[in-house]
Amino acid sequence: MLWRKLYLLKSPKNAERLKRAISDFEGNKNFRNWI
C-alpha cells in the first residue's frame, strides 16, 4: 500500500490531485465542525 502512495507522489499531476483531495477532505471536516 505504501509503495503505491510513493508511486503516485512521483507524478506531479498525481501529487497535485492528492494535495487537492487532502485539502478538500480537511475543508469538509472543518465545515462539519463549523455546523
TrEMBL record:
Domain of life: Bacteria
Organism (species): Rickettsia rhipicephali (strain 3-7-female6-CWPP)
Gene3D superfamilies xref list: 6.10.250.330
Name this polypeptide is given: Queuine tRNA-ribosyltransferase
